[in-house]
Design a protein that fits this description.
single chain, about 270 residues, alpha/beta, Carbamate kinase, four-stranded mixed sheet, about 20% strand, globular
Length: about 270
């Protein structure tokens, strides 16, 4: 199967975390799966922003990105986080290539302004070109994508800058364009939880909307669930999971129906 794995920055903060993730990817590839990785790096970006005196501001889980923060996002997400992850994967026996959205025009964006709110240099995926990803997979390399990209042609905005894209949203859009069979969101929060804090094994769009409306989904879980809904709307046959990132077999374990939360267009499709 073709798997897209989105891994959060929390898993990538330490050498041990990166080593563990690399081992889980290697195990999935050894089992015969094609793997594409999209990574976050919010914690690392927040740390550097604070060091240079930039205050973090968020709106519904999305980082408001000023011009200075957009430069830091390129340096951190497209640079240090991406390359340290690639090194860990290579050390773990996974031939890997680190990319931004600009490389091969894998993805380009439009300015994202939800409900008219100006988030600054924040983008949402507008165009995906899968040729480079397909070529790398065919050559035996695993693409490792950071969530920064330039504007798509014809889009209004500052074309000289890279736009910060929520990595969950980027993974959802890329999963549909790359026709993946499985989209995994691996995170330090191991499942979607209801208002009472109970982990949910299955969520359909109606359930998800209820959770959003009730305020049960907070922080980083909100864009994950929204991205999952977008992915299954575009590609209903795609299996989408939110599952734990920790462990040297996390990718294969996430495919187990008993692990994490499955999100599907209809619950019966998972049976």
């Amino acid at each position: 199967m073709r798997l897209m794995v989105k891994v959060g920055g929390a898993q990538l903060e330490t050498p041990d975390g990166r080593k563990s993730f690399a081992a889980s990817v290697a195990a999935a590839r050894a089992a015969g799966h094609e793997v594409i990785v999209v990574h976050g790096g919010g914690a690392q970006l927040k740390e550097l922003s604070e060091r240079v005196g930039l205050q973090e501001v968020r709106h519904e889980g999305l980082r408001v990105t000023c011009a200075e923060t957009s430069e830091l996002a390129l340096c951190v997400l497209g640079g240090s986080v991406n390359k340290t992850l690639v090194r860990a994967l290579e050390d773990g026996g996974v031939p890997s290539i680190g990319l931004t959205g600009a490389d091969g025009s894998v993805f380009r964006v439009r300015k994202h302004a939800p409900k008219g709110v100006d988030l600054g240099y924040v983008g949402e995926v507008e165009v995906v070109d899968p040729k480079l990803v397909d070529a790398l997979l065919a050559a035996g390399f695993m693409p490792v994508l950071s969530s920064v990209a330039p504007l798509a042609a014809g889009q209004a905005g500052d074309a000289s800058r890279f736009y910060n894209v929520n990595a969950d949203s980027a993974a959802g859009a890329l999963a549909a364009a790359l026709a993946v069979d499985v989209l995994l969101f691996l995170t330090d929060v191991p499942a979607v939880r209801d208002g009472a804090g109970r982990s949910l094994a299955l969520v359909d769009p109606a359930n998800a909307q209820d959770l959003i409306a009730s305020g049960a989904l907070q922080g980083g879980m909100l864009p994950k669930v929204r991205a999952a809904l977008d992915a299954i709307e575009s590609r209903p046959s795609c299996i989408v999971k939110i599952a734990p990132a920790a462990g040297t077999n996390a990718v294969l374990e996430a495919l187990d129906k008993t692990v994490g939360t499955s999100i599907a267009a209809a619950v019966q499709e998972l049976c």
